[in-house]
Amino acid sequence: MSVSAPSRPAGAMRRRPKTDLRLGLGFILPAGIGLIAFYIWPLIRGIWLSFTEYNLLTPEKFIGLQNYSRMVQDKIFWNAVGVTVEYVVINIGLQTILALLIAVLMQRLTQSTLVRSLVLTPYLVSNVVAAMLWLWILDTTLGVTNQLIEAVFGDTVNFFSSTLAIPTIAIINVWRHVGYTALLIFAGLQSIPNTVYEAGKVDGASEWRMFWKITVPLLRPILALVLIMTIIGSFQVFDTVSVTTQGGPVNATRVLQYYIYDLAFGRFQFGYASALAVGLLIILAAITALQYKMTRAGQTDLD
Prior knowledge:
Elements: H1 10-14, H2 21-49, E1 52-53, E2 61-62, H3 66-73, H4 75-109, H5 113-120, H6 127-137, H7 144-153, H8 165-190, H9 194-202, H10 207-218, H11 220-235, H12 239-244, H13 256-266, H14 270-295
Antiparallel strand pairs: 1-2
Helix pairs in contact: 2-14, 3-14, 4-8, 4-11, 5-8, 6-8, 8-11, 11-14, 13-14
């Protein structure tokens, strides 16, 4: 006697398995709208404007590569490139060394959450507030720094002169960002297993030798990521220059971002300013690709 299988409701045969596709799209949608509205569309619009003559008052006029030809012959543009590179070298050099030192000290001496919070505190201050604060501290007449220098040496120092302005601005931004960079490196240190350090101690390696032979090689992917992020951010410095020197004296601190801003909103040359912005985009893309390849950021020595 055969037993027939129980019949299923007709609706059950047509029911599809539930997925999280709609829920996922719902979460992605707001970020996607923001990405298109504030990044992708302005990028496309800026590239188009770089081929036009546009000043807000008249319709856009297509002029081909004239803006790029002007950019190549623009002495102020090349001066801005040189000033920006000087800032990036000083800022990245100091910031990376100090951040690595702070991260290693936190790893070796203390991993307290309070210490990490204190290290991150300057990063929570906005760029404009940090620039105003240091502008007052370093003021030639009223700044507490110059009052101490005058009391000891009998003279003051103009920290925002043509010679010292870029190093001063770089140090201000190092103070603000070094804590955040240190925490990124500290997170990378947490991924290095203690067994490799124990093996180094068994072999009689000193702390200094283990740092160069173990810590730095195993930290390479994180250091590469940090360098890519900080260099991109450094090339886009604007707030500190705008608050402290406004690109002066003369063009000593006229970095690329400030020059682009001045052309667009000071002289209403939006077409030429867009061409410079595209030029900066190409520079950053080339530097990032070169860094990624040279540092082998996508590979790790922990395998």
